[in-house]
Every structure is written in C-alpha cells, then in structure tokens.
Amino acid sequence: MKQKFKIWLMAARPFSLTASIIPVTIGAIFAAKESKFQFIYYLISLLAAVLLQASSNMINDYDDFINKVDTKESGSSSGIIFENLLTSEELLKGGRLVLALGCILGLFLAFQKGGFILILGTIGALSGYFYTGKPLILKYRGLGAPLIFMIFGPLMTLGGYFVQVQRININVLLLSIPIGLLTTAILHANDIRDIYHDKKAGIKTLSIMTGKTNACYIYYGLVYLSYISVLAMTYYRVTPIWSLLCLITLPTALKNINKLRISNRSNSKLATLDQETAKLQGQFGVILIISILFSYIR
Q: Which of 94, 142, 158, 165 has a beta carbon 3.0–4.6 Å from 204's, enabling a disulfide?
C-alpha cells in the first residue's frame, strides 16, 4: 500500500504542486486583513486546487503517451508509464477520479461561498482536462502558456481570496501576476527542452512556433517581469515594503537564466530546468506570502 501511494504521488508530480498551493494561499492571506481568516475553507480550497492540478498532470501524462508526444527517449513525463509502474489506463482512471474529487470540493465551496466560485472552478477544471484532452487539445495548439498563466495566476489567486471574503479586489489580480508569470515559466522551460521531440510528434507549442532563440527570450521575460512587477506593486503600495525580500531569490533566477543561455552548447543542461524553475516559483511565492503576513504585524 505504501509503495502504491508513492507511485501515485509520483504521478501527481509533487515538485510542481506549488503552482497551485502558492496562488491560493496568497489570495487567502491577502484577504485576512479584510475579515477573519477562515482556515477550514482555506484548506478545502487549497485541496481542491491541488487535486485539480494533480489530475491535470496525470491526464496530461496519459494523453502525451497515447499521442506519442512523450517517449522513452524524450524523458519529459513523470515516467510512471514507461517504468511500468502504472498502465496508461490506470493513470487515466486515476486522473479522472482525482478530478472528480476536486470538482466535488469545488461544488461544496460554490454552495457555501457563491456562484462565482462555481464559475472559477468550472473554468479551471475544463482547462485542466482539455489542456491535452480531446477535442480541444489546447497545449498542442500553442495555447499552453497563456492557459497556465490564467489558471495559476488570476484564477487561483482570485479564488483563494473570494472564498474568504466573497468579493473581487483589483489588487489581488495584480498580486497574481508575478506568480502566474513564474508558473508559466515552468511550463515554458519544459517546452523549450522538448522542442525536438514535440516537433517530431507533430504538435505545436509556443516554443516551436517562435523558435528556440525567441523562446529563450520569452523565458527571460517571464522571469524578469516577475521581479519588475513586484517592484512596481511595492512602489504603488499594492504590496508591502517587505515584498522586496523576494529579490533574495534573484540569484537563483539568474542561475536558471544562465543555464538556458548556454544550453545551445549542451541541451542536457535543460533536463531539470523546469524543476529548478518550480523551486524558484515556490521560494518566491513563500517569501511573498511571508511579506504579506509581516505587514499585518503592527
């Protein structure tokens, strides 16, 4: 049983789950200065978001395997199917089950907190499923990057906030920008690494459509704009002065950028760039959350 749990955890790609944890938490924490923090509802919204992301990861692995986008040579999936830990059908069924659990929690939140949560949850669930699922197969049409930004930026941050206070705040949308950009950079790093294999599979990603050189510039822009947006929000007092602590992570960001810059000489350097970018997103997000909490201390 313990071994089986580890396999399913691997299928969920735990290194990437900060993509949903961070924005939901930022939205909820930002709401704490306006009303009493509802910890139970925060946990439910967090679990719903994580389940929806985990299900998307599993279904994405299945679709990429069936469509021959991921192969043993590409090494771009979780590896669950190729290592014979789960069959493709088991992974699909598991992904759909996790999706259903996330939707049930979302429906509960919508019943308790209002129809706007239902709208956000429906957009998130459908986007996650049709990311690689037929008939929309959004990732294969070059729409992966903007979709990821929308889901893991404004949608989840606003959802975490709305669950707490049942209203919309423009500052929350602004706050979602740096996290959404860094989360998009995770996907984009993956797509840059997989340009050769994705071309071979006949799909289109933003990296393929722009070419590797321009794709690298897009990655640089996603990372740099994350820091610029925090500087701008701090200047205009959307975020507290403590938010400048996010600059502590800049050396890590520059290290990742340099790794990509020299990748033309060795594509193997890109093997873990998506995971390194996920770590950066997690560190940046945690510091941003702490900075907001610090601002509440008088």
A: 142
